[in-house]
Amino acid sequence: MDVRLPAAIRPVLDNGIPALMVTCSADGIPNTTVISQVYYVDDTHVALSFQFFNKTIRNVRENPRAHVTVNDMPGLSLWTLELEFDHSETTGPVFDAMDMVIEAIASSTGMSGIFKLRAADIYKVLSVEKQSYRPNA
Amino acid sequence: MLTSDVATFLQGGQCIHLGTRSETLEPTGVVVVAVSVDSDRSHLTAFLPKVGSSEVLANLEANGRAALCFARPVDDHACQVKGTYVEARPATKKERAVVEAQWDQSLRQLEHIGMPRQLWSGYAVWPCVAVRVRVTEVFDQTPGPGAGAPLA
After folding, report:
1. A-chain residues near B140 (CB < 8 A)
2. Å from A93 to nearest chain B CA?
3. Is the ipTM of this complex over 0.90?
4. Which domains does chain A have, with CATH numbers?
5. Above 90 in pLDDT, residue B55?
């Protein structure tokens, strides 16, 4: 049965706060990085930006699993997503929407010419969990 | 071994994240609120809020593989430390001041880029687990053409 993203996560994905992503190579070396956006594709998929051919991109092509944490500060929570890389898109509405956000981030942070979207990587959501900052509060 | 400059950067109140993986290569991670580099610059201690750290700690006990990303929000300067797990223990009361000072530095940086510290006021920074890691490699992770280069 497909795992579905709850409606409550939509504003969290759109809040502009960078997310954290962990991947792992085929030989078992983890890698962690900051990512600028987690784009909602539909209730079973998200897209992450492929800007540089870096370790993260190499890892998910060797081992498709990824772990992403997004901050829900007003909700005093973290959301964790277990993902599996599905495919890349270099044209189309998801790519165009992500490209526009990347351009906006690049120009506002002085990174124009460095941040450039090469592809929108589409991931299937395997699990989603909300965890309170203060579970005992 | 970390250079003096890198060691200073790591302890400068950056945004820090620890990544691990399970025996079946499923990655997972947790926010780190402070880091202390040993005087030998070959080991560091990462302070993880106890809340939410159990899966990462189980992975470290099982296979020892650790990756830490350090990112400075004000200019996107970043590096990645790879290492092997040595031990985990409850952070001491004496270490609490170090943890809170670095967390405060981190919040100041986030304020500088427009994220008010009040947004993080609910974050359970303490108690922490102190995770000691032996550093094996360190890489530049600043966005741009130098990303991925070793920082010896």
Report:
1. none
2. 25
3. yes
4. 7-90+123-132 (2.30.110.10)
5. yes
